[in-house]
Amino acid sequence: MIETDVIAVMGACGPERARYAARLSQATSRPLLAASRLAPQDPGSSAAAFLPWLDVGSGVVAEFPSDASILDVIGTLAERGSGLRLRSVVCVVDAPHLLDDLRRETYAGSSEVDDSGMPRTRYTAHALLAVQQLEYASTIMLVNWSGLSTPDLSITMALVSHLAPSARLRLHQPAVDLLPIAPIPIRSHQDAPGWVQLLNGEFAPHMTDPRISALRYENVRPLHPGRLNTLLDERIESGEFGSVIRSAGFCRFATRSNVIAQWDHVGSMIAFSPVQVDDGMAEAEGLLAVGEDIAFIGLDLHHRALRAALDETALTDDELAAGPSAWATFEDPFPTWQVSRSRE
């Protein structure tokens, strides 16, 4: 099967993304599939359906809208047998507005089918879409960077490098070669995000700045959800420990101690979702061996104070000794999870 090379262009700023995609199309003599032609509810599948009908020649530049999930796009275009070969994912970043994009509090809706086959709308925070477009990109193109002061540019480049250590970071210069093709096709699953590399002990960002740092927090004790909620709303959100821009990893709530949850935070948005249920464990046995493993990336972070505050949200000696029956009575203000249990 002859495969069509695809360069995917993504980014939170529509006008800047569209201009770059058009210039890249012209510079590489590849046709452009503009975001305006794609179905907003499922742009990845829409692009895959369009491409066989285009005279693509050596390949195509596909621009995706701001609401597109980079994970969905990679999954669709890198699927075996699709006839497509995803050569590069370029994330266009409007440098002066990067922090604003990562702090947006609005949500995007997309259609999906639930386990029963019924259609439903999935809502995803724009900030999460923006940070994932950075984290999973193969190339990050900073535009409008020349208006930043030298210290601000250094902070911006270091932050991007911490969020996406595996990506090539480039400052957009119209007179310079625009072709950012990766040497091998993009994989559908990558250990690309900075937070994943930090938890794996492989974190090595190329760009650094004294004000940008990363912290790995580990604790074997489950968290008290009530105290965690207070920490998030009253202390981390207020900037007491510096500006936590991105944190992600895994944790356990004492009130739901048999469930491993993913901790997923960017800007003002945080979500916890179940990723694994420990079946066959009697209540009295309580899982005490695995607690938190969370990466924090931010600006002017106070590492020691943040660690201490996180330690205070974990169970005390007396609470731990009381066991799961007592933990079930703790305050838990977070949304209920729908979890499925595996059966032997």
Q: Main attributes?
A:
alpha/beta; Rossmann fold; CobW-like_C; Hypothetical Protein Yjia, Chain: A,domain 2; 344 residues; 29% helix; 2 domains
The overall average pLDDT, rounded, is: 86
The termini sit apart by 41 Å
Strand order of the largest sheet: 2-3-1-4-7-8
Q: Per the principal axes of the C-alpha atoms, what is the gross shape?
A: globular
Order of helices and strands: EHEHEHEHEEHEHEHEHEEEEHHH
Q: Overview of this structure, please?
A:
By secondary structure, this protein is of the alpha/beta class. The chain has 2 domains: 4-194, Rossmann fold (3-Layer(aba) Sandwich); 212-327, Hypothetical Protein Yjia, Chain: A,domain 2, CATH 3.30.1220. It has 11 helices and 13 strands. The protein has helices at 14-28, 43-50, 70-77, 98-102, 126-135, 150-163, 194-199, 225-236, 303-313, 317-322, 324-327, and strands at 4-10, 32-33, 60-63, 84-94, 107-113, 119-125, 139-143, 168-171, 212-219, 243-251, 259-266, 269-277, 292-299. The strands form 3 sheets. It has a 6-stranded parallel beta sheet with strand order 2-3-1-4-7-8, sandwiched between helices. It has a 5-stranded antiparallel beta sheet with strand order 9-13-10-11-12. The chain has a two-stranded antiparallel sheet with strand order 5-6. Helix 8 (225-236) runs antiparallel to helix 9. The protein is globular and about 70 Å long. Residues 280-289 have low confidence and may be disordered.
Question: How is this structure best summarized?
Answer:
This protein has 344 residues and is of the alpha/beta class. It has helices at residues 14-28, 43-50, 70-77, 98-102, 126-135, 150-163, 194-199, 225-236, 303-313, 317-322, 324-327, and strands at residues 4-10, 32-33, 60-63, 84-94, 107-113, 119-125, 139-143, 168-171, 212-219, 243-251, 259-266, 269-277, 292-299. The model is unreliable at 280-289 (pLDDT under 50).
